[in-house]
Amino acid sequence: MLHEALHGLLRVCPCPLRYSFPLRPDRLQSFAMPDASQLRLDRVTAQLRLYEHPLLNFSARAKGDGVEVIIKFKDASIPVHTYYFDLHPRDLDDAQFEWGFQRQLYDALHDYFVEMFIRTPQDRKDRQQKGL
């Protein structure tokens, strides 16, 4: 029955089953597939667009086969460092990328904010000098 339906479609369609056209070298560039690193970068930037933070800006750039995520403080008048973390190809190509990315981003945010401390209770020598 399926064979008969397909045969009926082919009879109705007057177009040939094969197309041939000359390929011009100047147009082959448009058929090129983007490389894996560009696809990975696009995937990360698409995810980053889903996140908005009142204090931080997020961006990304290709780094080898992976992607480097950049977290920058919005207020440039406050002297804090920029935070970087790498995403490896195995993580970027994972079927559960979105979940893994969120976990890595939140872990990085935690680390970034902890690194912003100017003084902690562990700075005993500094506290003694300042009389705290």
Description of the structure:
By secondary structure, the protein is of the alpha+beta class. The mean pLDDT is 83. The protein is elongated and about 60 Å long. It has a domain at 35-115. The protein has a three-stranded antiparallel sheet with strand order 1-2-3. It has helices spanning 2-12, 36-48, 89-92, 97-115, 124-130, and strands at residues 56-63, 66-73, 83-87. It starts with a helix and ends with a helix. The chain is built from five helices and three strands, in the order ααβββααα. It is 41% helix and 16% strand.
Question: SSE layout and pairings?
Answer:
Elements: H1 2-12, H2 36-48, E1 56-63, E2 66-73, E3 83-87, H3 89-92, H4 97-115, H5 124-130
